[in-house]
Amino acid sequence: xxxxxxxxxxxxxxxxxxxxxxxxxxxxxxxxxxxxxxxxxxxxxxxxxxxxxxxxxxxxxxxxxxxxxxxxxxxxxxxxxxxxxxxxxxxxxxxxxxxxxxxxxxxxxxxxxxxxxxxxxxxxxxxxxxxxxxxxxxxxxxxxxxxxxxxxxxxxxxxxxxxxxxxxxxxxxxxxxxxxxxxxxxxxxxxxxxxxxxxxxxxxxxxxxxxxxxxxxxxxxxxxxxxxxxxxxxxxxxxxxxxxxxxxxxxxxxxxxxxxxxxxxxxxxxxxxxxxxxxxxxxxxxxxxxxxxxxxxxxxxxxxxxxxxxxxxxxxxxxxxxx
Length: 323
Ligand code: ADP
Ligand code: MG
Hints:
By secondary structure, the protein is α/β, with parallel strands linked by helices. The protein has two domains: 55 residues, 5' to 3' exonuclease, C-terminal subdomain (DNA polymerase, domain 1, Orthogonal Bundle), CATH 1.10.150.20; 254 residues, P-loop containing nucleotide triphosphate hydrolases (Rossmann fold). 42% of the residues lie in helices and 19% in strands. The chain has 13 helices and eleven strands. The strands form two sheets. A nine-stranded mixed sheet has the order 5-4-6-7-3-8-9-10-11, sandwiched between helices. It has a two-stranded antiparallel sheet with strand order 1-2. Strand 10 and strand 11 form a beta hairpin. The longest helix has 22 residues. It is globular and about 60 Å long. It starts with 12 loop residues before the first helix and ends with a strand. 42% of the residues are buried. The mean pLDDT is 88. The structure holds adenosine-5'-diphosphate and magnesium ion. Magnesium ion binds next to helix 7.
């Protein structure tokens, strides 16, 4: 049975509520917090915060160490999701990887949500067709999930691969939750974990989690330099939660991140994605997408632990992401 925040010594219902509101919704999130941070954000005083953190560390599964052979064994099972565009797949060493966070950033309208929709279709296909026989979870923060668009993409894939695909079945395997603010967004990762556990032995486990957009709520809620550090800390925790989801479920995590075309006083260098360095260090693969001629888009691999930088030209058509 899962531990509740109220099970921590010194945490009653009121404190638990404060902690949740401050974004510390799980024992794990508390375990990795600093007393000063937790004290301030949850308004509980540093000494109390330190006690709560100590108790959380004792009971939390905060990962700890894995030996090299364990990491090796885990990584043997990495899955790759084909994107629909062979150049894109090649650049990614075969497709979007499980056990990793892939960030796709670009301007409004550049095609981030299109790529996300396409992967939600592709991951459901059998492995020989570039999928992982999977279910999908989407945390939709901008209300841009469109079932009709999924249907178009299913038809596109069916024609391209010469397969019979049932669009209604595919829609049934996509679990979408709207996130109404950044705290809710963080909480939904816990719900996603529960759902993934439920589906683990269903024959259609969750191998793809999409957060579209990762940063929009954070950007809207934390305006101005004063709260930048708080925002980054919270985003960092969120990303650690996502990485944990990726590892425990052998799932790919795809997050989108909008960059500003206009210089933005609040976020420094306008060519840098929102979330800045913290995102940079946490997302394993970073992709920059931009518009090109007609339906073409250029996707650039900006950062990867084991692949060279590169660019791929993709098309976004009625059929979805294609060569
Ligand atoms: P963002 O990066 O803001 O998430 P989107 O992924 O929503 O951007 O991309 C929107 C663009 O995708 C549209 O401007 C259009 O070029 C393309 N697009 C969306 N739907 C279709 C469609 N049904 N057929 C062709 N192109 C589409
Ligand atoms: Mg979008």
